Amino acid sequence: MPSARDLGLEIGSLPPGPLNAITDVEGVAVGQVTLSAGAVQTGVTAILPHGGSLFREKLPAAVRVFNGFGKSIGFVQIEELGTLESPLILTNTLSVGTAAEALVGYMLAQNPEIGAATGTVNPVVLECNDGAWLNDIRGLHVKSGHVAEALAAAVPGSFAQGAVGAGTGMSAYGLKGGIGSASRLIRISGQDYRLGALVLSNMGRLQDLCVAGRALGSLISERMKQEASPPEQGSIIVILATDAPLSDRQLRRLAGRAGAGIARTGSHFGSGSGDIALAFSTAQRIPHSQPKESLLQLSQVHEDGLDPLFCAVIESTEEAILNSMLQATATAGREGRSRASLADFPDLLVAR
What we know:
CATH class: Alpha Beta
GO molecular function: aminopeptidase activity
Helix content: 10-25%
CATH superfamily: L-amino peptidase D-ALA esterase/amidase
Protein name: P1 family peptidase
């Protein structure tokens, strides 16, 4: 399936990374398990922020909640300490508990000191509801083994997008949503940095859809002979990774700019929507064990140097959402329901 750039849709002015994906940030890996058979349209997406032990070598991180109609876990400790100490798991709403248990098991196997010689671990699981249209979410089809499989499959480099992993059963703007990614290259004070976004898109009303600044939702709605869209009750998860040295406070500022990228595609963060961004930096690692001198020296970009990163967040988030829809194949699910792909309307997507 085509990406936005395959169709000549270039978002913003900053150049993309070589892969135009979150894995352009060195060390970041993505693994996925897709469950797609009839009424079962769901899955798991795992993101490993670096290749070492995240528990022993934590990363600065922050969360921004735009609308809190969601059931993700792990945010309280991130808000308090400003660090990330586990991989990130994306799945459907009712599988959060299963995913958390599997992630804890993964962390215990890697770190025998957890819960014994030191404290416990903060697993982070993020979700969207794929049961609103395509998936039999009540069937609880995601099992612990699927989470373990996604974690084991996580590797750097290119990965599938669209109706895969956690995005298998998701809908966006009344069309097929799912997993999407994009990246940007930034230069700050003579230094080159990368920023990547990965989204799990499951939000929006068709009549509101904008593609590269063009209001196409009403045109697609007419083509599909649909009446007005129902109230927005979906969700979107945005994961941001960068190799720029940033504090957790600065990462919270970055995460806030993801909202602008979401809004550019037409979402108004409806009352029943769970819209969340999580940002982390791979530039510096924070040891779990207290150093002898009890002093950490961490670098950070000056506040006045953040603007290129803000632009990168907005551009990559917007493009990642479009990629999640364009690279998703039309999908049939439970009760004979289906979602068309945005790529099914190529004549409307060509800029005039």
